[in-house]
Amino acid sequence: MRLVFLGPPGAGKGTQVKMLSKALGVPSMATGDVLRMEVASGSELGREAKSYMDKGELVPDDIVIKIVEKWLRSINIAKGFILDGYPRNVRQARELDEILRQMNVELTAAIYLDVPENEIVRRLSGRLTCRKCGAVYHIEFNPPKEDRKCDVCGSELYQREDDKEDVVRQRFRVYTESTKPVLDYYKDKGKLLVIDGLGSIEEVNKRILKRLQELSSSSK
């Protein structure tokens, strides 16, 4: 299985990708993690990426695509992979298809984890972070034992700026607007799998595995 995994911030992509990677026995890659690894390696690509990251700017497509290609060529591509949160635009999607074509494989599916805006707001705006040790809590799903105090070190918990409701709604709108062309791209190719992201982590995971099993059976 060669998969890309898409979904808005707070949809639970990272959790599902880790579970899926283990269940399928294939490596996974989150673009941000690989970017940071490339920077840490001190490679020419890493230095280029760092020059943008240090200024708080988005790393240009050309560099991101090269870093993703480098990772893909470092694994057993025939066995499969999962890309987490990539591609972010249609150009990256087209370039990914071309890279895979050169490697004589093609993408199996693009999975989109569909979670409504209000649920995203509920998940993200309820997060609290410890000022000292960085532990993360949630007022509904994982509340601290004592109000606004960290269970680990007793320090004050606070709400990060990017977890405030108005910021979360803006992030959601920006993501859905920028990602719609990518979803349309994969839909036109018959590769888009839209998964209901509501429910427990286990329920969502079962839905994904069921759809992939159906896809695998229909392609035989």
Give the SSE map.
Blueprint: E1 2-6, H1 13-24, E2 28-30, H2 31-41, H3 44-53, H4 61-74, E3 81-84, H5 90-102, E4 109-114, H6 117-125, E5 127-130, E6 136-138, E7 157-158, H7 165-188, E8 192-196, H8 201-218
Parallel strand pairs: 1-3, 1-4, 2-3, 4-8
Antiparallel strand pairs: 5-6, 5-7
Task: Summarize the entry for a quick read.
The chain is an alpha/beta fold and 220 residues long.
Give the key terms:
220 residues; alpha/beta; five-stranded parallel sheet; three-stranded antiparallel sheet; 8 helices; 8 strands; globular
- Portion of residues in beta strands equals 5-15%
| Overall form | globular
The amount of helix comes to 40-55%
> What is the CA-CA span between the terminal residues?
13 Å
Low-confidence stretches: none
Describe the strand arrangement of the main beta sheet, using strand numbers.
2-3-1-4-8
Could you give the count of β-strands? 8
Element-by-element helix/strand order:
EHEHHHEHEHEEEHEH
The main sheet comes to: 5 strands, parallel
> What is the count of DSSP helices, taking H or I runs of 4+ residues?
8
Mean pLDDT: 92
Which structural class do you get from the secondary structure elements?
alpha/beta
The radius of gyration over CA amounts to: 19 Å
